[in-house]
Amino acid sequence: MKVIKTLPVGKAPGPDGFTDDFYKCFAHELVPLMLDMYVDSLKRGALPPTLSQAIITLIFKKGKESTDCRSYRPILLTNGRPGHFCLGFRTVGCCDSLKS
Fold it and tell me: b/e per residue, 10-26, with b = 16+ CB within 10 A?
């Protein structure tokens, strides 16, 4: 729950279309389901394939030449924000208890 509360507001969703605002709004319903998914993933040794999906897009840097590839920075939009949640579980000490 702590991790979801710290998610940034107004960020673009990944391929699944779920925004951080969605996770915040439905946190009470989603946390038990997500925890089950991560526990299962630890047991199997792999995350669900959908958490490996992402959209990579380029953002133009203002004031740069549009024909120069260095004028763009890549961003990666992922499903379910797995990095945030995995980091959060580790931060709040959940991973140690999940692995045993």
Answer: eeebbeeeebbeebeee
Residue whose C-alpha is closest to residue 58's, from 66, 50, 48, 46: 66
Q: What average pLDDT score do residues 35-63 get?
A: 88
Check whether 46 has a pLDDT greater than 70.
yes
SS3 track for the chain? CHHHHCCCCCCCCCCCCCCHHHHHHCHHHHHHHHHHHHHHHHHHCCCCHHHHCEEEEEEECCCCCCCCHHHEEEEEEECCCHHHHHHHHHHCCHHHHHHC
59 pairs with which residues across the strands?
73
